[in-house]
Amino acid sequence: MPTTIIGIGLGLYLMVVAIIQTSHQDMAQIKTVYDLYVNLPSFYLVFGGTLASTLIAHPISHLIRGIKAFVVVFFKFTEHDFVKKIEEVCEFSQIYSKNGLPGLEEKLKSYKYDNMLKDGLNMIVQGYKLEEVNKSLETGLDRRYDREMIDYYVFKTMGAVAPAYGMVGTLVGLIFMLRVMGDSPEKIGPFLAVALVTTLYGLILAHLVFNPISNKLQHQAEINLRLGVMEIEGLKYVLEKQHPIYIKDNLASFIAPAVRKRLYKTIETKGK
Question: Is pTM, for the whole model, over 0.90?
Answer without folding.
Answer: no
